[in-house]
Write a structure and sequence with these properties.
It is a single chain. The protein has 21 helices and 20 strands. The strands form five sheets. It has a six-stranded mixed sheet with strand order 5-6-7-3-8-9, sandwiched between helices. Strands 14-17-18-12-19-20 form a six-stranded mixed sheet, sandwiched between helices. With 626 residues, it is of the alpha/beta class. A hairpin with a 5-residue loop joins β15 (403-405) and β16.
C-alpha cells in the first residue's frame, strides 16, 4: 500500500495540560480512518497539526509529496467578506476556476462568455466535475449564493466549509465532526458519498452509524497509548474489549509475580551483585506495570428527577408560522409519563421552534398548551450556554447552587458533583477558556441536570460529546423515569434511546410514529416503494390501452433492423470487454508496483477506455429506445 501520511512521535501541551505524547501512526492510500479519544485529549488539535495549521512540540508529520490535502475544522475559517459562491469556489485549481466562471456566466445569463467557456469545459472534460459540484451544493442545501459569509449561522458556515473542501476534491481529506449541523438526510448523503469516494480520509466523528459505514480503520488514543484496529466500529468495540481484558489480565499477573519478587528483594540484599542485576531491573519494570490503574474512571449518571404528576403536557390544535411559512399545523398531543420521543426532520423545518413553543419561550399562533404543575423542564439547547471564559469551572456550578440534591436522598457539594462528571480537581479550578468543546458540552449538561428535571428536552445533545460520554448518557436516558424529548441527527443515539418519533415532514405536517428512527425510515422506504410500484403499474396499464392502429405503429417503430440488432449485440460484447480491461488497469494502477513509464501508459489507456465506454453506452441507449 502506498503511504500517504506518516506521523512520528508527536507531542503537544496546552498550557500545563498534556494533550498527547509520542503519537505515531501511518495512513495508506485509499484508507478511511476514524480517530477516537475522550474529550480533552486533543483530537481536534492533532488534526490541525497534521493539516499544518498548528505546531507540535516534538515529532514530525510527513505527507507524500505529490498529494493535495484538505481539512474541515469544527469551526471552519472562512472569509467573512466573501459571498457563499465566492467562498465555495475559492480555489487555485484551474478546473475549479473554470467551473466557477461557467456557473457565474449561467447565473448572469452571459451568453457571450458561455460561448467561450463551453469549448474550455469540453477540453478539460469538466462536465462530470461540474455535475458533482452541483450535487454537493444541492445535497447540503447551499443555495443562497449571494449571501455574505458573515451573515450565515454557525450551521450554515459549517455546511459551506464542508462543501468547499469536498468540491476541492483533495487526495487526502481531514474532517473534524463533519456531521455536526447536518440533518439526517444530509448525513446519510455524506455517508454514501464518502463510502463510495476513493479519497483517503482521516476524521473525528461521534456518529457511530456514520463511522461504521464509512471507515475501515480506527485509531484510538487513551491513557495507555495509541491502538489501531483494522475494521469498522463494530469490530473496534469487540477488539477493544479484548484488549482491555488482556491488559487487566497482564496487570493482575504482574501484581501476583511482584509479591514474589518483593519477597526476594527484601530477603536477599547480599545477592544484589552484577549477576542479579537483570532481576533487579525486571523487578522495577514489573512494579511499573503492576502499579497501573485498571479501574478506568467512568461517568455514571444516576440523577433522579422530581416526581411527575398525572397531567404532564397537553397540546391542543397548535399552529405556528413565520413569514407565511407554516412550521406547525394543527398539532395535538398528550404526553404520558416515561415516554421518550425523538424529533426528526430537515434543517429549518421547525424542530427547534416546536421545542421553544412547548417550553413557552415562543407563543403559538393558535391552539393551546397546558403544562402540569409538577413539570420541571431541563432544556439543553443546541446553541448551548455562553460561559464567561475567565470564570473558573467550579464557580460556574457554585453560582447555580453550592449543594446539589440528586433526588434519591443524596446531596453533593459543587466540587463532588463536578468530580462525578469527570472534572478533576485541577480542571475544576481551571478557567473555562481551557476546556475543549466536548468538555464545555459536558459542563453544560451538568448545569441542566442540576435542577433534577422530570421532563428533559435535548436539542442536538450529541454535538462535540465523545463516544464514551455518549454511551453513558444513552444508558442514563434509557432508565430516565420522566418524559424525554430529543432532537438529534445522530441515528445511533436516537435508535438506542427513543420509542416514538415525531417526523417533521414540511409544511407544518408532523407525523406521529411508534418506534425508533430506523423503524420509521424502513416504513417510509416501504411506503415509497409501494407508491412507485403503483405508479409503475399505472403507466404500464396506460401503455396497454392503445388503439390497435397506434399499437401497430409503435410496434413498427420499436423494431430494430437486422444490422442494428447486430450492432447492439456487438456493443454489449465490447462494453463487457472494456469494463474488464478498465478494472484490470485500475487494480494495476493502485498496486504501487508499476514503473513510471508503465504508470503513464496505463493512465493514458484508462482515459481512452472511459471515453470509448461513454460513446458506446450512449449508442446502446439510442438503439434500445428505437
Amino acid at each position: 500500500m502506498i503511504s500517504y501520511l506518516q506521523v512520528d512521535n508527536l507531542s503537544k501541551r496546552f498550557g500545563e495540560q498534556l494533550l498527547f505524547e509520542n503519537i505515531s501512526f501511518g495512513i495508506g492510500k485509499g484508507q478511511k480512518v476514524a480517530l477516537i479519544a475522550k474529550n480533552g485529549m486533543g483530537k481536534s488539535t492533532l488534526l490541525r497539526i497534521i493539516a499544518g495549521k498548528d505546531t507540535s512540540e516534538t515529532g514530525s508529520v510527513i505527507f507524500r509529496n505529490d498529494i493535495s490535502v484538505g481539512i474541515l475544522e469544527q469551526d471552519p475559517i472562512l472569509n467573512p467578506e466573501n459571498t457563499v459562491f465566492e467562498e465555495v469556489f475559492n480555489s487555485d485549481t484551474p478546473i475549479l476556476k473554470l467551473i466557477a466562471s461557467y456557473e457565474k456566466a449561467i447565473r448572469q445569463n452571459d451568453n457571450q462568455t458561455l460561448e467561450k467557456l463551453i469549448p474550455e469545459m469540453d477540453s478539460y472534460a469538466a462536465w462530470d466535475y461540474d455535475s458533482t459540484v452541483k450535487q454537493i451544493l444541492s445535497e447540503l442545501k447551499i443555495d443562497t449564493y449571494d449571501k455574505k459569509i458573515d451573515k450565515l449561522s454557525g450551521g450554515q458556515k459549517k455546511r459551506v466549509g464542508l462543501a468547499k473542501v469536498l468540491i476541492s476534491n483533495p487526495d487526502f481529506l481531514i474532517l473534524d465532526e463533519p456531521t455536526n449541523h447536518l440533518d439526517i438526510e444530509m448525513t446519510e448523503w455524506l455517508e454514501d458519498y464518502l463510502s463510495k469516494s476513493t479519497t483517503t480520509l482521516l476524521m473525528v466523528t461521534h456518529d457511530r452509524y456514520f463511522l461504521d459505514r464509512v471507515c475501515n480503520q480506527i485509531i484510538e488514543i487513551d491513557e495507555f497509548g495509541l491502538f489501531t484496529y483494522t475494521g469498522n466500529y463494530a469490530y473496534y468495540l469487540e477488539k477493544r474489549e479484548e484488549r482491555i481484558a488482556n491488559h487487566h489480565a497482564a496487570i493482575d499477573k504482574a501484581r501476583n509475580l511482584l509479591r514474589t519478587e518483593q519477597e526476594w528483594m527484601r530477603r536477599m540484599p547480599q545477592a544484589r551483585g552484577h549477576k542479579a542485576q537483570y532481576r533487579i531491573d525486571n523487578f522495577y519494570k514489573l512494579k511499573e506495570t503492576a502499579s497501573q490503574n485498571i479501574n478506568e474512571k467512568k461517568l455514571e449518571l444516576d440523577i433522579q428527577g422530581k416526581r411527575l404528576g398525572k397531567k404532564i403536557l397537553e397540546l391542543d390544535h397548535v399552529s405556528k408560522s413565520f413569514d407565511g411559512h407554516c412550521l406547525l399545523r394543527d398539532f395535538s398531543y398528550k404526553f404520558v409519563r416515561g415516554e421518550k420521543i425523538g424529533i426528526v426532520g430537515k434543517n429549518g423545518v421547525g424542530k427547534s421552534t416546536f421545542l421553544n413553543i412547548i417550553t413557552q419561550h415562543l407563543q403559538p399562533d393558535s391552539g393551546s398548551i397546558s403544562i402540569g404543575e409538577t413539570v420541571v423542564y431541563g432544556y439543553y439547547k443546541q446553541s448551548g450556554i455562553t460561559f464567561n471564559e475567565n470564570d473558573r469551572v467550579i464557580d460556574i456550578v457554585k453560582n447555580i447552587s453550592e449543594r446539589i440534591e440528586l433526588g434519591n436522598g443524596k446531596i453533593m457539594s459543587a466540587s463532588q458533583f463536578l468530580e462525578y462528571f469527570l472534572f478533576t480537581d485541577k480542571q475544576q479550578y481551571s478557567l473555562v477558556e481551557k476546556l475543549s468543546g466536548g468538555e464545555r458540552r459536558r459542563l453544560y449538561l451538568l448545569t441542566v441536570l442540576m435542577s433534577n428535571p422530570n421532563f428533559l428536552i435535548l436539542d442536538e445533545p450529541t454535538n462535540d460529546l465523545d463516544i464514551i460520554t455518549l454511551n453513558v448518557l444513552e444508558e442514563y436516558l434509557r432508565s430516565f423515569k420522566g418524559c424525554l424529548l430529543i432532537v438529534s441527527h445522530d441515528r445511533f443515539f436516537t435508535d438506542k434511546v427513543v420509542d416514538r418519533i415525531f417526523a417533521f415532514e414540511g409544511d407544518g405536517i408532523v407525523k406521529d410514529f411508534p418506534g425508533n428512527y430506523t423503524l420509521y425510515k424502513n416504513k417510509k422506504e416501504e411506503e415509497k416503494e409501494r407508491l412507485e410500484k403503483i405508479e409503475k403499474e399505472k403507466k404500464q396499464q396506460e401503455k396497454t390501452v392503445i388503439p390497435p392502429a397506434e399499437s401497430n405503429k409503435n410496434e413498427r417503430k420499436r423494431k430494430l433492423s437486422f444490422k442494428e440488432r447486430q450492432e447492439m449485440q456487438q456493443i454489449e460484447t465490447d462494453l463487457e470487454q472494456l469494463n474488464a480491461e478498465k478494472a484490470s488497469l485500475e487494480e494495476a494502477l493502485s498496486s504501487g508496483l508499476l514503473k513510471p513509464e508503465e504508470l503513464l501508459k496505463k493512465s493514458e489507456r484508462i482515459a481512452e477506455i472511459i471515453t470509448i465506454l461513454d460513446e458506446k453506452e450512449m449508442r446502446w441507449l439510442e438503439l434500445s429506445e428505437i
